[in-house]
Recover the amino acids of this structure.
Protein backbone atom coordinates (compact mmCIF):
# COMPACT_ATOMS: atom_id res chain seq x y z
CA UNK A 1 0.00 0.00 0.00
CA UNK A 2 1.47 3.32 -1.08
CA UNK A 3 1.74 6.06 1.51
CA UNK A 4 1.72 9.80 0.96
CA UNK A 5 5.06 11.48 1.46
CA UNK A 6 5.07 13.62 4.57
CA UNK A 7 5.35 17.35 3.95
CA UNK A 8 8.41 18.78 5.74
CA UNK A 9 10.01 22.15 6.07
CA UNK A 10 13.05 22.67 3.90
CA UNK A 11 16.42 23.51 5.40
CA UNK A 12 16.07 27.23 4.67
CA UNK A 13 12.78 27.26 6.62
CA UNK A 14 14.27 25.78 9.79
CA UNK A 15 15.36 27.85 12.83
CA UNK A 16 18.91 29.08 13.13
CA UNK A 17 21.49 26.29 13.13
CA UNK A 18 23.77 26.37 16.18
CA UNK A 19 25.93 23.32 15.46
CA UNK A 20 26.12 20.56 12.81
CA UNK A 21 28.12 17.46 11.90
CA UNK A 22 27.88 13.73 11.23
CA UNK A 23 26.39 11.48 13.91
CA UNK A 24 25.42 7.85 14.05
CA UNK A 25 21.91 7.49 15.45
CA UNK A 26 20.22 4.36 16.75
CA UNK A 27 16.97 4.15 18.68
CA UNK A 28 15.39 1.20 20.47
CA UNK A 29 13.34 0.39 17.35
CA UNK A 30 16.31 0.42 14.95
CA UNK A 31 18.26 -2.76 14.18
CA UNK A 32 21.40 -0.86 13.13
CA UNK A 33 22.91 2.58 13.42
CA UNK A 34 22.53 5.14 10.62
CA UNK A 35 25.14 7.73 9.81
CA UNK A 36 23.31 11.03 9.15
CA UNK A 37 24.20 14.68 8.79
CA UNK A 38 22.78 16.30 11.93
CA UNK A 39 21.87 19.97 12.47
CA UNK A 40 20.93 21.48 15.81
CA UNK A 41 18.31 24.09 14.79
CA UNK A 42 16.56 25.70 17.72
CA UNK A 43 15.86 22.99 20.29
CA UNK A 44 15.47 20.20 17.69
CA UNK A 45 17.90 17.84 15.98
CA UNK A 46 17.23 17.46 12.24
CA UNK A 47 18.78 14.51 10.40
CA UNK A 48 19.67 14.56 6.68
CA UNK A 49 21.10 11.85 4.46
CA UNK A 50 23.98 14.11 3.45
CA UNK A 51 25.08 17.72 3.65
CA UNK A 52 23.46 18.69 0.32
CA UNK A 53 19.91 17.52 1.07
CA UNK A 54 17.27 20.18 1.67
CA UNK A 55 14.64 17.83 3.17
CA UNK A 56 15.32 16.15 6.49
CA UNK A 57 14.47 12.48 6.98
CA UNK A 58 14.07 12.50 10.76
CA UNK A 59 13.93 14.94 13.64
CA UNK A 60 14.34 14.67 17.39
CA UNK A 61 12.71 17.19 19.72
CA UNK A 62 15.11 17.85 22.59
CA UNK A 63 12.38 19.11 24.94
CA UNK A 64 11.81 15.46 25.81
CA UNK A 65 15.41 14.94 26.96
CA UNK A 66 15.71 13.90 30.60
CA UNK A 67 19.47 13.46 30.87
CA UNK A 68 22.68 12.73 28.94
CA UNK A 69 25.20 10.04 29.84
CA UNK A 70 28.39 8.79 28.25
CA UNK A 71 28.48 5.24 26.87
CA UNK A 72 31.83 3.68 27.77
CA UNK A 73 31.43 0.67 25.48
CA UNK A 74 34.14 0.33 22.87
CA UNK A 75 33.31 1.07 19.23
CA UNK A 76 34.84 -0.34 16.10
CA UNK A 77 36.26 3.08 15.50
CA UNK A 78 38.59 3.61 18.42
CA UNK A 79 38.39 7.40 18.06
CA UNK A 80 34.59 7.45 18.22
CA UNK A 81 32.70 8.30 21.43
CA UNK A 82 29.20 7.24 22.31
CA UNK A 83 26.44 9.23 24.01
CA UNK A 84 23.07 8.08 25.35
CA UNK A 85 20.08 10.47 25.32
CA UNK A 86 17.53 9.44 27.93
CA UNK A 87 14.14 10.48 26.56
CA UNK A 88 10.67 10.10 28.03
CA UNK A 89 9.80 7.56 25.36
CA UNK A 90 13.03 5.58 25.52
CA UNK A 91 16.75 5.84 24.90
CA UNK A 92 18.59 7.01 21.79
CA UNK A 93 22.26 6.14 21.27
CA UNK A 94 24.40 8.62 19.40
CA UNK A 95 28.00 8.10 18.31
CA UNK A 96 30.19 11.14 17.71
CA UNK A 97 33.37 10.91 15.57
CA UNK A 98 35.62 11.96 18.49
CA UNK A 99 35.65 12.74 22.20
CA UNK A 100 35.93 16.47 21.48
CA UNK A 101 32.87 16.32 19.16
CA UNK A 102 30.91 14.45 21.83
CA UNK A 103 31.68 17.17 24.40
CA UNK A 104 30.60 19.87 21.97
CA UNK A 105 27.34 18.09 21.19
CA UNK A 106 26.65 17.66 24.90
CA UNK A 107 27.39 21.34 25.55
CA UNK A 108 25.09 22.61 22.78
CA UNK A 109 22.28 20.24 23.74
CA UNK A 110 22.44 21.37 27.37
CA UNK A 111 22.52 25.01 26.24
CA UNK A 112 19.25 24.80 24.24
CA UNK A 113 17.48 22.54 26.77
CA UNK A 114 18.43 24.28 30.03
CA UNK A 115 19.18 27.71 28.49
CA UNK A 116 22.46 27.90 30.40
CA UNK A 117 26.08 27.06 29.66
CA UNK A 118 27.08 23.78 31.38
CA UNK A 119 29.96 24.11 33.81
CA UNK A 120 30.73 20.39 34.16
CA UNK A 121 32.25 20.03 30.66
CA UNK A 122 35.86 20.53 29.63
CA UNK A 123 35.51 23.29 27.04
CA UNK A 124 37.84 25.89 25.62
CA UNK A 125 37.12 29.64 26.14
CA UNK A 126 36.12 30.06 22.50
CA UNK A 127 33.68 27.15 22.74
CA UNK A 128 32.16 28.57 25.92
CA UNK A 129 31.68 31.92 24.15
CA UNK A 130 29.88 30.17 21.28
CA UNK A 131 27.53 28.45 23.71
CA UNK A 132 26.75 31.72 25.50
CA UNK A 133 25.68 33.23 22.19
CA UNK A 134 23.59 30.12 21.55
CA UNK A 135 21.82 30.48 24.92
CA UNK A 136 21.00 34.17 24.27
CA UNK A 137 19.73 33.49 20.76
CA UNK A 138 17.61 30.51 21.81
CA UNK A 139 16.12 32.39 24.77
CA UNK A 140 15.11 35.26 22.50
CA UNK A 141 13.62 32.85 19.95
CA UNK A 142 11.49 31.08 22.57
CA UNK A 143 10.30 34.41 24.00
CA UNK A 144 9.20 35.52 20.53
CA UNK A 145 7.35 32.25 20.03
CA UNK A 146 5.60 32.66 23.38
CA UNK A 147 4.52 36.20 22.50
CA UNK A 148 3.22 35.04 19.13
CA UNK A 149 1.22 32.24 20.72
CA UNK A 150 -0.14 34.56 23.41
CA UNK A 151 -1.27 37.10 20.79
CA UNK A 152 -2.96 34.40 18.73
CA UNK A 153 -4.60 32.95 21.83
CA UNK A 154 -5.95 36.32 22.96
CA UNK A 155 -7.43 37.02 19.53
CA UNK A 156 -9.30 33.87 18.56
CA UNK A 157 -7.77 30.75 20.10
CA UNK A 158 -8.83 31.00 23.74
CA UNK A 159 -12.46 31.57 22.87
CA UNK A 160 -12.46 28.51 20.57
CA UNK A 161 -10.62 26.13 22.90
CA UNK A 162 -12.26 22.72 23.36
CA UNK A 163 -13.38 21.69 26.82
CA UNK A 164 -10.53 19.14 27.05
CA UNK A 165 -7.85 21.86 26.87
CA UNK A 166 -5.64 22.14 29.96
CA UNK A 167 -2.66 24.54 30.31
CA UNK A 168 -0.30 21.86 31.65
CA UNK A 169 3.02 20.33 30.66
CA UNK A 170 3.55 16.88 29.24
CA UNK A 171 4.29 15.31 32.63
CA UNK A 172 1.36 17.04 34.30
CA UNK A 173 -0.96 15.87 31.51
CA UNK A 174 0.09 12.25 32.08
CA UNK A 175 -0.51 12.59 35.82
CA UNK A 176 -3.98 14.12 35.29
CA UNK A 177 -5.03 11.38 32.88
CA UNK A 178 -3.69 8.71 35.28
CA UNK A 179 -5.43 10.06 38.38
CA UNK A 180 -8.74 10.91 36.74
CA UNK A 181 -9.14 8.04 34.31
CA UNK A 182 -12.94 8.19 34.66
CA UNK A 183 -13.12 11.68 33.14
CA UNK A 184 -11.63 10.84 29.74
CA UNK A 185 -8.34 9.83 28.13
CA UNK A 186 -7.68 12.60 25.56
CA UNK A 187 -6.25 15.97 26.58
CA UNK A 188 -5.24 19.04 24.57
CA UNK A 189 -2.36 21.10 25.96
CA UNK A 190 0.24 23.67 24.85
CA UNK A 191 3.44 22.34 23.29
CA UNK A 192 6.89 23.02 24.71
CA UNK A 193 8.04 24.97 21.67
CA UNK A 194 5.45 27.66 22.43
CA UNK A 195 4.28 27.86 18.80
CA UNK A 196 1.99 24.84 18.56
CA UNK A 197 -0.28 22.58 20.62
CA UNK A 198 -0.12 18.93 21.59
CA UNK A 199 -2.52 16.08 22.29
CA UNK A 200 -1.82 13.59 25.07
CA UNK A 201 -3.72 10.28 25.23
CA UNK A 202 -3.75 7.45 27.74
CA UNK A 203 -4.91 3.84 27.28
CA UNK A 204 -4.60 0.63 29.27
CA UNK A 205 -2.41 -2.14 27.83
CA UNK A 206 -0.84 -4.08 30.72
CA UNK A 207 -0.55 -0.67 32.36
CA UNK A 208 -0.87 2.92 31.24
CA UNK A 209 0.29 3.70 27.71
CA UNK A 210 0.71 7.40 26.87
CA UNK A 211 0.95 8.90 23.39
CA UNK A 212 1.75 12.51 22.46
CA UNK A 213 0.83 14.13 19.13
CA UNK A 214 1.73 17.54 17.75
CA UNK A 215 -0.95 19.91 16.44
CA UNK A 216 0.66 22.53 14.18
CA UNK A 217 -0.90 25.84 13.23
CA UNK A 218 -1.04 26.59 9.49
CA UNK A 219 -0.08 30.00 8.16
CA UNK A 220 -3.23 30.29 6.04
CA UNK A 221 -5.50 29.34 8.96
CA UNK A 222 -6.55 26.06 10.50
CA UNK A 223 -4.49 23.27 12.03
CA UNK A 224 -2.66 20.11 11.02
CA UNK A 225 -2.60 16.91 13.04
CA UNK A 226 1.11 16.17 12.60
CA UNK A 227 1.39 12.40 12.01
CA UNK A 228 3.02 10.35 9.26
CA UNK A 229 0.16 11.35 6.94
CA UNK A 230 -0.82 14.86 8.13
CA UNK A 231 -4.52 15.45 8.69
CA UNK A 232 -5.73 19.02 8.03
CA UNK A 233 -8.46 20.36 10.36
CA UNK A 234 -10.23 23.68 10.24
CA UNK A 235 -10.50 24.13 14.01
CA UNK A 236 -9.25 22.57 17.22
CA UNK A 237 -12.69 21.08 17.74
CA UNK A 238 -12.17 19.35 14.39
CA UNK A 239 -8.87 17.90 15.66
CA UNK A 240 -10.57 16.39 18.72
CA UNK A 241 -13.52 15.07 16.69
CA UNK A 242 -11.10 13.52 14.18
CA UNK A 243 -9.31 11.56 16.93
CA UNK A 244 -12.61 10.36 18.40
CA UNK A 245 -13.92 9.22 15.01
CA UNK A 246 -10.73 7.51 13.82
CA UNK A 247 -10.45 5.51 17.08
CA UNK A 248 -14.15 4.50 17.01
CA UNK A 249 -14.75 6.23 20.34
CA UNK A 250 -11.82 4.58 22.15
CA UNK A 251 -10.49 8.08 22.87
CA UNK A 252 -12.82 10.43 24.72
CA UNK A 253 -12.13 14.08 25.59
CA UNK A 254 -10.93 14.72 29.12
CA UNK A 255 -13.41 16.92 31.00
CA UNK A 256 -12.08 17.95 34.37
CA UNK A 257 -15.06 19.97 35.51
CA UNK A 258 -17.59 17.87 37.42
CA UNK A 259 -21.24 18.44 38.32
CA UNK A 260 -22.23 21.31 40.62
CA UNK A 261 -23.97 21.01 43.98
CA UNK A 262 -27.71 21.62 44.20
CA UNK A 263 -27.83 22.78 47.82
CA UNK A 264 -25.71 24.71 50.32
CA UNK A 265 -23.96 22.39 52.79
CA UNK A 266 -21.56 23.15 55.62
CA UNK A 267 -19.78 21.35 58.48
CA UNK A 268 -21.05 22.20 61.96
CA UNK A 269 -19.75 21.03 65.33
CA UNK A 270 -22.14 19.61 67.94
CA UNK A 271 -21.68 21.46 71.23
CA UNK A 272 -22.67 18.45 73.36
CA UNK A 273 -20.76 15.65 71.66
CA UNK A 274 -18.09 17.76 69.94
CA UNK A 275 -18.47 15.80 66.71
CA UNK A 276 -18.65 17.47 63.30
CA UNK A 277 -21.56 16.76 61.01
CA UNK A 278 -22.58 17.88 57.57
CA UNK A 279 -25.57 20.20 57.62
CA UNK A 280 -27.74 21.50 54.81
CA UNK A 281 -28.61 25.18 54.95
CA UNK A 282 -32.35 25.91 54.74
CA UNK A 283 -33.31 27.93 51.76
CA UNK A 284 -36.26 30.27 52.12
CA UNK A 285 -37.85 31.10 48.80
CA UNK A 286 -37.77 34.79 48.08
CA UNK A 287 -41.26 36.10 47.23
CA UNK A 288 -41.47 37.88 43.94
CA UNK A 289 -41.45 41.62 44.21
CA UNK A 290 -44.69 43.05 42.78
CA UNK A 291 -44.19 45.50 40.02
CA UNK A 292 -46.32 48.61 40.55
CA UNK A 293 -48.70 49.33 37.73
CA UNK A 294 -48.11 52.57 35.97
CA UNK A 295 -51.02 55.06 36.07
CA UNK A 296 -52.76 55.66 32.75
CA UNK A 297 -51.42 58.57 30.86
CA UNK A 298 -54.01 61.40 30.91
CA UNK A 299 -55.12 62.55 27.52
CA UNK A 300 -55.71 66.15 26.53
CA UNK A 301 -59.17 67.42 27.40
CA UNK A 302 -60.88 70.79 27.05
CA UNK A 303 -62.03 72.54 30.15
CA UNK A 304 -65.72 73.46 30.09
CA UNK A 305 -66.42 76.30 32.49
CA UNK A 306 -69.42 75.91 34.78
CA UNK A 307 -71.85 78.61 35.89
CA UNK A 308 -70.22 78.56 39.31
CA UNK A 309 -66.80 79.24 37.81
CA UNK A 310 -68.24 82.10 35.79
CA UNK A 311 -69.89 83.55 38.88
CA UNK A 312 -66.54 83.55 40.64
CA UNK A 313 -65.06 85.90 38.11
CA UNK A 314 -66.06 88.91 40.21
CA UNK A 315 -67.87 91.01 37.56
CA UNK A 316 -68.81 94.51 38.67
CA UNK A 317 -72.37 95.85 38.67
CA UNK A 318 -71.67 97.98 35.59
CA UNK A 319 -70.41 94.96 33.61
CA UNK A 320 -73.49 92.96 34.60
CA UNK A 321 -75.86 95.77 33.48
CA UNK A 322 -73.93 96.06 30.19
CA UNK A 323 -74.27 92.31 29.65
CA UNK A 324 -78.02 92.55 30.28
CA UNK A 325 -78.33 95.32 27.67
CA UNK A 326 -76.35 93.32 25.14
CA UNK A 327 -78.50 90.28 25.82
CA UNK A 328 -81.66 92.29 25.11
CA UNK A 329 -80.27 93.65 21.84
CA UNK A 330 -78.94 90.32 20.67
CA UNK A 331 -81.05 87.30 21.53
CA UNK A 332 -79.10 84.17 22.56
CA UNK A 333 -78.09 81.68 19.88
CA UNK A 334 -78.53 77.92 20.25
CA UNK A 335 -75.55 76.23 21.96
CA UNK A 336 -72.81 74.77 19.71
CA UNK A 337 -72.14 71.05 19.37
CA UNK A 338 -69.61 71.12 22.19
CA UNK A 339 -72.48 72.07 24.61
CA UNK A 340 -70.65 75.12 25.84
CA UNK A 341 -73.20 77.64 27.08
CA UNK A 342 -72.83 81.25 25.89
CA UNK A 343 -72.12 83.96 28.39
CA UNK A 344 -75.50 85.71 28.00
CA UNK A 345 -77.41 82.51 28.68
CA UNK A 346 -75.28 81.80 31.73
CA UNK A 347 -76.33 85.22 33.12
CA UNK A 348 -79.95 84.20 32.88
CA UNK A 349 -79.35 81.53 35.49
CA UNK A 350 -78.66 84.17 38.13
CA UNK A 351 -81.56 85.52 40.24
CA UNK A 352 -82.89 88.87 38.94
CA UNK A 353 -81.69 92.02 40.62
CA UNK A 354 -84.54 93.83 42.53
CA UNK A 355 -84.40 97.51 43.64
CA UNK A 356 -84.18 98.00 47.37
CA UNK A 357 -87.63 98.29 49.07
CA UNK A 358 -87.81 101.27 51.47
CA UNK A 359 -88.92 100.48 54.96
CA UNK A 360 -92.47 101.95 55.59
CA UNK A 361 -92.60 104.66 58.19
CA UNK A 362 -94.98 103.87 61.04
CA UNK A 363 -96.85 106.53 63.01
CA UNK A 364 -97.97 106.02 66.55
CA UNK A 365 -101.74 105.84 67.15
CA UNK A 366 -103.69 108.82 68.39
CA UNK A 367 -103.40 109.29 72.08
CA UNK A 368 -104.39 111.77 74.78
CA UNK A 369 -101.04 113.43 74.84
CA UNK A 370 -100.94 117.22 75.05
CA UNK A 371 -100.35 119.33 71.99
CA UNK A 372 -96.99 120.57 73.29
CA UNK A 373 -95.79 117.02 73.91
CA UNK A 374 -96.92 115.96 70.48
CA UNK A 375 -95.12 118.86 68.89
CA UNK A 376 -91.91 117.88 70.68
CA UNK A 377 -92.34 114.23 69.59
CA UNK A 378 -92.91 115.21 66.00
CA UNK A 379 -89.94 117.49 66.10
CA UNK A 380 -87.76 114.59 67.21
CA UNK A 381 -89.15 111.80 64.96
CA UNK A 382 -90.02 113.84 61.93
CA UNK A 383 -87.96 114.11 58.84
CA UNK A 384 -87.11 117.40 57.20
CA UNK A 385 -88.09 120.87 58.63
CA UNK A 386 -90.77 121.49 55.95
CA UNK A 387 -92.86 118.57 57.17
CA UNK A 388 -92.54 119.75 60.77
CA UNK A 389 -93.67 123.25 59.89
CA UNK A 390 -96.67 121.95 57.97
CA UNK A 391 -97.72 119.81 60.89
CA UNK A 392 -97.48 122.74 63.34
CA UNK A 393 -99.63 124.95 61.08
CA UNK A 394 -102.33 122.29 60.91
CA UNK A 395 -102.37 121.92 64.68
CA UNK A 396 -102.70 125.67 65.19
CA UNK A 397 -105.50 125.82 62.67
CA UNK A 398 -107.42 123.10 64.51
CA UNK A 399 -106.98 124.84 67.85
CA UNK A 400 -108.30 128.11 66.45
CA UNK A 401 -111.31 126.39 65.00
CA UNK A 402 -112.09 124.68 68.33
CA UNK A 403 -111.81 128.00 70.23
CA UNK A 404 -114.09 129.80 67.82
CA UNK A 405 -116.65 127.09 68.08
CA UNK A 406 -116.51 127.14 71.85
CA UNK A 407 -116.99 130.90 72.01
CA UNK A 408 -120.03 130.77 69.85
Amino acid sequence: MATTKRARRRRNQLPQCYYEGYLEKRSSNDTASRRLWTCLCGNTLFFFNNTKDNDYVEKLDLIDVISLTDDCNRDRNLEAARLILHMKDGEIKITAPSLEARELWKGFIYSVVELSVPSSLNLLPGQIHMMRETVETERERQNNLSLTLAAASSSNLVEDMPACYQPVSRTEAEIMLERHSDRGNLLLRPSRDGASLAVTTRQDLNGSVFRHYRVARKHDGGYTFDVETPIPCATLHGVINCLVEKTNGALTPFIMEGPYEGSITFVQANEESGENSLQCAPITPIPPVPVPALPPKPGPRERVPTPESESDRGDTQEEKEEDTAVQAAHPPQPPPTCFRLPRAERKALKPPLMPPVPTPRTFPPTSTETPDARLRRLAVNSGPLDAVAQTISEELKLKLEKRMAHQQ
